[in-house]
Amino acid sequence: MFNVKGSLLRFWEKEFDLTLRKNRKGDRFFTPKDVKNIQLIHDLVRRRKFTIEGAKDYIKSGKQAEAKYEMIQSLQRMRNFLLELKANL
């Protein structure tokens, strides 16, 4: 889904104190909330080039970080829709 290696996801899990559910075999189960958190981390670290410490501070800033991220995602979806509409004209 994110085109990253599993080791990077495990690193982010450790660094950002994500608590994922695991079965006896050790397979991780991602809830929708976990996926949303990883999307935010991926966006901050990969797209916006935050450092790990900078991303931690941004996330700790609370709901403002989530609200900003949701707004950015909404605007990106709208932009993609408009570009698709333009291409079909």
TrEMBL record:
GO molecular function, one term: DNA binding
HTH merR-type domain span: 2-60
Gene Ontology BP term (one): regulation of DNA-templated transcription
Parts forming coiled coils: none
InterPro entries: DNA-bd_dom_put_sf, MerR-type_HTH_dom
Highest rank taxon of the organism: Bacteria
Pfam families per record: MerR_1
Name this protein carries in UniProt: HTH merR-type domain-containing protein
